[in-house]
Amino acid sequence: MEDQLIKIIIKGASGWGPSDMAYSDKLTIKSDGISYEKKPVIESEENPHVKWSYKTNSDKYQSLFHALGEQSHAFEKLPDEFVTDICPNQVKFYFENETLSFDTYFYHGVEQFVEMVKLMIPATEETPYCLPDEEPDDED
User: Engineering a disulfide at 8: which of 29, 31, 98, 125 sits with its beta carbon 3.0 to 4.6 angstroms away?
Assistant: First the structure.
């Protein structure tokens, strides 16, 4: 990308299912920090409200952040999908002169992007719901 990356926002939602487990979530990544919020439709012990934010001036973090901008090209190549029982994740890249927006149900084809984002999440926090925690087990 020629333009400088300003931020990335990843939004997700639980999709179709029981309302007591429904939620929406948002992960915001900037050059100086990362924040996350999960808002349940009905807050409970099993479906809590989660919110965290971290600031940093780490060179390693900033290098990862700028490398994420290059990952927008991989999103351009994702195939169109239609799924009825889950909501797509919306990934927006904000550059100085443009915003690129992508909807994806699955992160197949952009695994490197997901792994880079996971490196930016503090070890004390769970993986955000809008990111896959691990590949599904197909050994059934």
Answer: 29
112 burial via Cβ count (<10 Å: 0-12, 13-18, 19+):
middle
Handedness of CA 133, 123, 109, 98 (dihedral sign): positive
Residue 85, CB half-sphere, CA atoms under 13 Å: how many? Answer: 2
Name all contacts of 20-29 with Cβ < 8 Å and 24+ positions apart.
Answer: 20/44, 20/46, 20/47, 21/46, 21/47, 22/47, 23/47, 23/129, 25/50, 25/128, 25/129, 25/130, 26/130, 27/117, 27/128, 27/130, 27/131, 29/65, 29/68, 29/117, 29/120
- Give the pLDDT means over successive 10-residue stretches in the chain (140 positions): 84 83 94 96 93 96 92 83 74 93 85 94 93 58
Side-by-side strand order, sheet with 99-104: 50-55, 33-40, 23-30, 5-13, 89-95, 99-104
CA distances from 117 to 24, 78, 81, 106 (A): 19, 18, 23, 15
pLDDT at 3: 74
**The predicted structure's pLDDT at residue 36:** 98
